[in-house]
From TrEMBL:
Pfam families per the UniProt record, alphabetical: DNA_pol_A_exo1, DNA_pol_A_exoN, HRDC
Spans traversing the lipid bilayer: none
Gene3D superfamilies: HRDC domain, Ribonuclease H-like superfamily/Ribonuclease H
Region annotation Disordered: where it falls in the sequence: 1-30, 313-337
Official protein name in the record: Ribonuclease D
GO biological process, any: nucleobase-containing compound metabolic process
CDD domains associated with the record: RNaseD_exo
Lineage of origin: Bacteria, Bacillati, Actinomycetota, Actinomycetes, Micrococcales
Provenance organism: Actinotalea soli
A GO term for molecular function: nucleotide binding
Database matches in SUPFAM superfamilies: HRDC-like, Ribonuclease H-like
Domain named HRDC: residues: 236-316
Length: 417
């Protein structure tokens, strides 16, 4: 695995690249999976008697199973070694949570793992997110393997990242991979923490980590069927109704069978049916996307929602414009709908890009694109640094973000008046 460059301003030369040492085995070997109440009690005591932060990771099977459930929990703590817990037979891990107390949890991309861990009643009192730390430090690549190579000079294999973690028993090479994922997280945390403090970004990181830890569950999406891949090619309401009907039928099947929706019926098949609008089972099975053996066997099942959509009264067809939200319209329409807002967005993007370059922080970590668009579309009535800062803070920007961007955005907006 090639290393990321320590200087984000330009490409690395071969001489600059650090030597990478492959990480092949955990220090204490691969532990047995904890999958009984007795083994869990023993692991809990080990974690309780240890000290310091705890490295945490979780494996899901989102490409295979319905939803985002956790199918393996990995933990490592100084004095306890590595613990691999199977949450399928042990869904309540509150005893682990209690044993860890107020210990800091070290995770990579914590926002991906914390919702699933919460279902096992695992909720940290403090978080250090190594991916967010890497972003704040301006590392050009922030995947775990890339960060471990850049910071520690170690090669971390990722060939099992997308396997079906609901498989039982778990293969030994998968368990090796899972154990290595937490093997060096504590070392990585120490090095990244030192670098953040040296760069004057330690407080920024603490605010970001706490925001991730306290983030509420994502609200249900409005019209989630509109996220079907390829939907952009369909604008006709009748065809959109076919997409909606097939998506809902697939969702029902996927949930009932505990299978990833894409394995029940691919998005491409849904879009193809909507474009063709077949009026019979035979016409449906003539589509290339429905000629597979499994799909043909259920052709009548899939044609039923298509027929229902084709028979819907005009007044029940979905809008081609999508549901109404409080979000601003797409920026590509701003120059026609509100030229002043388009001008604000242009100068704001330039200002945020300049700040990001100065501090070596990605622009999306300085301010989310949605928040920036909302500010530019609906700015405060009186434009100055205070009003812009208040607007950003009320919308959820962290204090460090407000301190960096509010003065520059206010100044940029004033130039347009």
């Amino acid at each position: 695995m090639s290393s990321a460059h320590p200087d984000v301003t330009g490409p690395a030369s071969d001489e600059d690249a650090p030597e990478i040492t492959p990480l092949r085995e955990p220090r204490e070997g691969v532990p047995a999976v904890v999958d009984t109440p007795e083994a869990l009690a023993e692991a809990v005591e080990r974690l309780r008697s240890a000290s310091g932060p705890v490295a945490v990771d979780a494996e899901r099977a989102s490409g295979y199973r319905y939803g985002q459930r956790t199918f393996l929990v990995q933990m490592r703590r100084e004095g306890a070694g590595t613990v691999l817990i199977d949450p399928v037979p042990l869904p309540d891990l509150s005893s682990v949570d209690e044993a860890l107390g107020d210990a800091e949890w070290v995770l990579h991309a914590a926002s991906q793992d914390l919702p699933g861990l919460s279902e096992q009643r695992l909720r940290p009192a403090a978080v250090f997110d190594t991916e967010l730390a890497a972003r704040l430090l301006g590392l050009p690549r922030v995947g775990l393997a890339a960060v471990v190579a850049e910071i520690l000079g170690l090669g971390l294999a990722k060939e099992h990242s997308a396997v079906d973690w609901s498989t039982r028993p778990l293969p030994q090479d998968w368990l090796l991979y899972a154990a290595l994922d937490v093997e060096v997280l504590l070392d990585l945390r120490r090095e990244l923490g030192d670098r953040l403090d040296a760069a004057g970004k330690g407080e920024w990181a603490r605010q970001e980590f706490e925001a991730v830890r306290l983030a509420p569950p994502a609200p249900p999406r409005v019209d989630p069927w509109r996220r079907t891949s390829g939907l952009h090619a369909i604008r006709d309401p009748r065809r959109l109704a076919v997409v909606r009907a097939l998506w809902q039928a697939r969702e029902h099947d996927a949930r009932r069978r505990d299978v990833s929706p894409g394995r029940v019926l691919p998005d491409a098949a849904i879009v193809a049916a909507a474009q063709a609008m077949p009026t019979s089972v035979t016409a449906l099975t003539e589509l290339p996307q429905f000629k597979g053996k499994a799909t043909r066997r259920r052709a009548e099942h899939w044609f039923a929602p298509v027929a229902e959509a084709l028979a819907l009264p005009e007044g029940q067809l979905p809008s081609s414009r999508g549901p109404r939200t409080d979000a601003p319209p797409p920026p590509r329409t701003w120059s026609d709908r509100d030229p002043a807002a388009a001008a604000r967005l242009a100068v704001a993007r330039t200002a945020v890009a300049e700040i990001g370059e100065e501090h070596q922080v990605p622009v999306e970590n300085l301010l989310t694109p949605d928040l920036l668009r909302r500010l530019c579309w609906s700015p405060p009535a009186r434009i100055d640094e205070v009003s812009v800062a208040e607007t950003l803070a009320a919308a959820g920007a962290r204090p460090w973000q407000v301190e960096l961007v509010a003065p520059r955005l206010a100044a940029a907006f004033v130039t347009l008046q």
